[in-house]
Amino acid sequence: MNIQSIGESAGIVWKVLHGDNRKWEYQELKQVTGLRDRELNSAIGWLAREGKIQFDESLNKDKQSLYIELSLYIG
């Protein structure tokens, strides 16, 4: 894994998030992108560092969920 491959993975995640403006669960995003955990985690970190995604952690029926969504400001 190198900066080039992390950037490519971030691009894959960005396209999925940009195409469907909603909250995504981690496992759901993993399945849709086809990325492995390490690739997806690095892509999420890249996009988070750029301020392009938001996180929402919620607790549902004793199960903690992480939701990821696009940060898009129109102005």
Automatic annotation (TrEMBL):
Q: Which Pfam families match?
A: DUF2582
Q: Which InterPro entries match?
A: DUF2582, WH-like_DNA-bd_sf
Any idea what this protein is called? Winged helix-turn-helix domain-containing protein
> Which species?
Phocaeicola coprophilus DSM 18228 = JCM 13818
